[in-house]
Structures are given as structure tokens and as C-alpha cells.
Specification:
- The protein is of the alpha/beta class and 323 residues long.
- The chain is 49% helix and 14% strand.
- The chain has an eight-stranded mixed sheet with strand order 7-5-6-4-1-2-3-8, with helices on both faces.
- Helix 5 (127-145) packs parallel to helix 8 (208-226).
Amino acid sequence: MKLSLLIPVFNEEENLWLLHGQIDAMAKQFALDVEVVLVDDGSTDRSFEVLTAIAAADPRCRVVRFRKNFGQTAALAAAIAHATGDIYIPLDADLQNDPADIPRLIAKLDEGYDVVSGWRKSRQDLFWSRRLPSVLANRLISAWTGVKLHDYGCSLKAYRAEVIRDIRLYGEMHRFVPIYASWAGGRVAEIVVNHRARQFGVSKYGINRTFKVLLDLLTVKFLSNYATKPIYLFGGIGLILAGLGSAVALGVVVGRFIWNAPPFQHNMSLLLLSTFLVTIGLMLVMMGLLAEIIIRTYHEAQGKQIYLVRSVLNPAPAAGAKE
């Protein structure tokens, strides 16, 4: 059984050799067959120079270099595309994930699960800006999708290759892979993992990421329920709005011409304004969902990728080639 460790890297020069040492020690201790796919996501520090040295010293390490910063999801997608293992394990490059937890993830997979997600139960991050928004988001995601996990944001997970290899990732959707797997009939489990305080560098995430995750969650829910029958959603909302509009119009006509009610121009103006705002808001949400479908069609129908690779160090052998 071969493990592929998938590591997005963005400005983590101080952490990379330390992370490599911890992975190497873990692999030797448990006699694991490991390859490490590191994706330099447009780093502006010396991360790529360090990665180049690591790849030269260790042929198990494959380095993919982006032309610019495309984000964590794109980096993970590139790592998956360049991986060749039987089990894929993403983890962060900032040393907050502990490679020593990897054997425990694998042991849980061996119980018959397809995905094992890490839970940072004792999370070493700021409460107001990181932990509290994460707790609220995780509860909302679990309630809305039916896949009960405590920590969707934990990068440290283990996937069977067949579960994750064909999943297309966009936006911040790397965290939703357990949902896709569960909806496809996969078995999902969760175990508590170690989470360490950051020692070097600075966090790349802020409170604004929570709002992106919530919007991506809306997309996931839409695609799961209405991707093949969007008329049920759009048509249903349209009929409801049309019915409300007709009822309001009928009420105005009946009140004015049958009951001889005096006109209330001020109230009618507010009613029209609120109707206009609600309608425009719904139209914008629907346009966003339609755009999600269009962008997937654009990428997948034409074989487009969501990233551009500058170079690859220690590339995987071509299919059918001898190593």
C-alpha cells in the first residue's frame, strides 16, 4: 500500500525541512511506502529553493511549482493529479498538522472506511478569528449536508484514491470532499488528531474565508439536489414569487374598486420597494449558482485546469513506463 502525502505550500520556507524530517521519521518508524507531493502555490519567499533542495535529497518528494498563487484548493487538485498512491493524505505545510497521526488515520481506514477526517479537538488557534467561526461553520455544514463531522477545516484526512481521484475541486471545496464521498455511498469516519501552534511564518487565512466557505456550501447543496433538475428550484421560486405578486395585485384591485378603500400611496411604495429588493437579491443568488454550473462546464468540457504549472521536480513515471 502506497501513501501519497499532498502538501500545498505558500511561503513556508522555515517549516519545510522540519516537516520533511518529521515525515521521514514517521515513514521509517512504521515502514510505510510514502511519496510526498509538494505544490508551491506561487510562494514569494525562498520556499521553492528549499523544495528544490528537498527534492534533490529525497527522490520520494515530488515538487510542483505554480506560475502564481491559485489558492489551497487548486494546489490540492494539482497534488492529486501528480500523485500515484493508493491512499491520499493532505496535510498543511505549517507544521500544525502532526505527521505522527498518519498511521492512526490509516488504521481507521483499514476498518472499512473510505474517508477518515481529522478533528482538531484541542485547536491551537485564536478563538475569535479562527476557532469560533470554524465551530459555527462546522455545525452549519453538518446540519445542512447530513454528514456529521466536527472539523471540516482540518486538512489532515485520509482518502482511498478511488474516492478522491475523480472529484473536481473549485473555490474552497477541498474541505467538502467527505461530503461528496458520503453522497456517493462512501463510509466516512473521524478521529481526534494532534494540532500544534504555529512556530514560524504567519497564517494565510482570515475571517473572510468563513464567508467563502458558506457560499461554497450553498453551491455544494445546490449541485447535490438540483444539478440535474434546476427547473425544480428556479421554477418553484418563480411560481412562489409570481403567486405572491398576483395575490398582492389582486388585493390592491379588490380593495380599491370593490371595497372602495382609499389609496395608500406611501404603503404601496414601500411594498414595491421591498418586492424589488427581494426579487433582485434572489436573482443575484440564482445567477451565482448558474455561474457555478457554467464554470464547471467550461473547465470540464474543455479539459481546462484551475492552475498553471511552471515545472515539476522528480515527476511520476508515465503510465506503463518502468521505474
